[in-house]
Amino acid sequence: MTAAAPDAPQTVSWYRTQSGAELLQRVATLAILSILALAFIVPVIWMVISSLKPIQTVFDNSWLPPMTSQGWPVPIPHPQYFSNFSDAMTLVPFGTYFKNTLIVTVFSVAGSVLSSSLVAYSFARLRWPGRDFFFVLVLATMLLPGIVTFIPQFIIFSKIGWVDTFLPLIVPTWFGNAFYIFLLRQFYRGIPQELAEAARIDGAGEFRIWWQIVMPLARPALAAVGIFAFTGAWEDYFGPLIYVGGDPNNWTLQLGLKAFETAAGGGSPLWNLIMAAGLVVMIPVLVAFFIGQKYFIEGVTLTGLKG
Q: Which of 21, 90, 140, 219 is 20 to 30 A from 190, comparing alpha carbons?
């Protein structure tokens, strides 16, 4: 006599396991997030479409695709002017602007990560007189808008002859950033002290502990700081305008985009070329975020687990 086969497990749809209130909350949350996402995506879509148009039709609001005789929609816009991208790269010295931006960004990111990490290690792992007071003082600098300090900073950099050079854009990043120091300090406080104590027993100094133990373990937080610093340096407009705006050979990409307003020798700005160049400038930021997205989210999340 054979035993009866056990009944197959019953599968229940996820929405049947939710109560009415929970299901309504999920639907409302999804709807709100979709609307917010659409608000951010629509301008980018318009930017892409405009970058493929001739200058005369940029503002014609042709969002709906025309239909072929077979009833199939054709791509927007029709036809596509991919030559706008090559024209944007050659109309202005785009290569010079890209090189300048890359120099400022690389040194700014390196300075922000190294200096902020070292200061955060001191606040998080070392004990010295006045540590908590100076940490509060560092945080207090976040309450002071950066625009307020631009005039005294410009006077200082002008007196020492740094105007029309990259030094005012790079050197301050090597003295730490209050927000980055706070993020890294919070993350460092979650690293077990036993690792540092074992290293001290083996004769390691504090600098070696910071470099060989803490830094590798803090990769998520360092990635978050690196992405913040990269985005801030790459997209900075006001800083280069103040310090290197007088020398076109030192212009960054953000200043270079403004050159399209007068590149045609007067008249209306070349909006289609501005959109094409803007997309090219935006690509490195998107690539950097998607490459470090996992570490970025993990770093921002974990910094608040231990205060």
A: 140
The string of pLDDT tens digits covering residues 243-289 is: 998 888 899 999 988 877 766 555 677 888 888 999 999 999 888 88
Residue type, 161: G
Establish whether the linkage from the previous residue to 168 is cis, with ω within 30° of 0. no
> Residue 112 in 3-state DSSP?
helix
Name all domains of the chain by residue range, CATH numbers in brackets.
Answer: 93-302 (1.10.3720.10)
CA 2 → CA 5, 9, 167, 274, distances in Å?
9, 21, 85, 78
Using omega within 30 degrees of 0 as the cis cutoff, is the peptide bond preceding 77 cis? yes
Reduced to 3 states (helix: H, G, I; strand: E, B; else coil), residue 126 is: coil
Helical residues (DSSP H) of the chain, grouped into ranges: 20-51, 83-91, 94-125, 131-140, 150-159, 167-170, 178-188, 193-201, 206-209, 215-217, 219-234, 238-243, 253-258, 271-291, 293-302
Cα–Cα distance measured from residue 141 to residue 95, given in angstroms and rounded to the nearest whole number: 37
Strand partners, 47: none
Q: How far apart are CA 181 and CA 139, in angstroms?
A: 9
